[in-house]
Amino acid sequence: MPTVLVRPTDSFSRVSNFAIIDSTLREGEQFATAHFDTQTKLAIARALDDFGVDYIEVTSPAASEQSRSDCEAICRLGLRAKVLAHIRCHIDDARIAADTGVDGLSVVIGTSHLLRTYSHGKSMAAILDQATQVIQYIQSRGLEVRFSSEDSFRSDLVDLMSLYRHVDRLGVNRVGIADTVGCADPRQVYDLVRTLRGIVSCDIETHFHDDTGCAIANAYAALEAGATHIDTCVLGIGERNGITPLGGLLARVYTAARDYVTGKYQLRQLGALEALVAKAVGIQVPFNNYVTGSASFVHKAGIHSKAVLNNPATYEVLNPEDFGVTRTVAIGHRLTGWNAIKARVDMLGLASVVDEAGCKEITRVVKERADCEGTLGLEKVDELIREFVERQQQQRVIVGSAKAGLSSVDSAACLLAGESATASAASMPTSAVV
Q1: In terms of DSSP H, where are the helices of 119-176?
Q2: What are the tens digits of pLDDT across the range 31-86?
Q3: DSSP string covering 269-328
Q4: In this predicted structure, what is the pLDDT of residue 408?
């Protein structure tokens, strides 16, 4: 495995000890093309549970009758993961959700000046009163409760900390920080979480939108600062540009705490989980998706290919085998190096008849053809390799015939024997180099 330079940590860091709250069935339902029917929700919930997430967050049962019914159906699955319902800080929402069988409720209310002015219109004093009522009701029902501000990073810091201190004293299980518009950067996240860690004794949950591309980095910074729970969605789907992607977060944490990640999560199921969600919302898994994208472990440049063939850690910080993904060394292009061609020759079982000079000659031909025709497919590269071998065999037959005085019939027999050997070699495994 590769050696990774890891930032020094302190006693607050939770990089190797945190919980994932997957919100694909809540935040993910807010994705532009999402419309999950009941069976799809159940399938996604089972897949998330099998993968190993700690919590599954679902849409507020107060949102619609179908949402309530679907929530109840998920609760009846008997999953290992806890099921949380996401609700507004409103007593009616809490009453409806508490009757569905969920393990806990995730309560949220906007705290920024913008949201207090243009959304719910409540003062901070009113928010404190309403939060107290809702939290105490949820606790009376014996349910886990998280209380979160919305638009935390554009909220007044004094107001925010006063609110968190108040709900912490009420005994909530977690307080939540939400970068609702994706405006925060990792340094801001670290500072706010570390400040909050000194204010409350309960757990800290974080929720990061990806409008400016910082969702993964922000989640990781939150863990370093002491956050205990991270919200994710499969493929990062969600409102607008979505939130921290499940696979991307685990890839990042893997580089610092590989044993923790590989021991807790069924990483080999990530591709199937993402394919399930992608199909449900009608999108393709992006080519550059973390870990499972079609290009994630494709090596092309000559110097890269040579090094990777010798030791994959030279150009990989993630081990694709841990995620059930295949590494590929591309060889049919103008950047091909002869070491990559040699690896393919070896795979075809032709190493005994193609030496280094031969590999370099085949490489020259591949580059020349790729310059004119574009990237060549694997079958075409194999064809060029076989053509080279056949030419070599023909030359040997001609030279041998001249020296030994063999008849033309004998020469033909030798050539046919050579072609037969070549055909056998072509059936060798081809999965590692394309």
Answers
A1: 124-140, 157-170
A2: 999 999 999 999 999 999 999 999 999 999 999 999 999 999 999 999 999 999 99
A3: GHHHHHHHHHHHHT-PPPTT-TTTSTTTTEE-SHHHHHHHHH-GGGT-SS-GGGGT---E
A4: 47
Catalytic residue of the set 86, 209, 304, 333 = 304
| Matching residue, tokens 């292009």 | 333
- For 271-314, the pLDDT digits (tens) are 999 999 999 999 999 999 999 999 999 998 988 988 998 899 99
Angstrom CA distances, 29 to 2, 32, 69, 191, 204, stand at 38, 8, 15, 31, 24
Q: Among 231, 172, 232, 213, which residue's Cα sits nearest to residue 196?
A: 172
Write out the residue limits of the CATH 3.20.20.70 domain(s) in the chain. Answer: 19-281
Single-letter amino acid code for the residue at 343: A
N residues, the chain: 434
CA distance 26 to 328: 36
CA distance 200 to 420: 76
Q: What is the pLDDT of residues 96-132, one digit of tens each?
A: 999 999 999 999 999 999 999 999 989 999 999 999 9
Give pLDDT tens digits for 125-138: 999 999 999 999 99
Close Cβ partners of 398 (under 8 Å, ≥ 6 residues apart): 411
Asked whether 107 and 143 are in contact (CB, 8 A), the reply is no
Distance between CA atoms of residues 157 and 58, nearest Å? 29
CATH of span 19-281: 3.20.20.70
CB contact at 8 A, 274 and 292:
yes
**pTM to 2 decimals?**
0.86
Interaxial angle between packed helices 186-197 and 157-170, expressed in degrees from 0 to 180 and rounded to the nearest 10: 40
Q: List, in sequence order, every residue forming a beta bridge with 107; answer none if it has no partner.
A: 87, 147
Residue 403 has pLDDT above 90, yes or no: no
Tokens of 254: 């893997």
Tell me, yes or no, if 299 is annotated catalytic: no
Give residue 356's Cα distance to chain centre: 40
- Give the whole-number percent of the chain exceeding pLDDT 70: 89
Side chain identity, residue 227: A
CA distances from 16 to 80, 220, 228, 248 (A): 21, 11, 10, 16
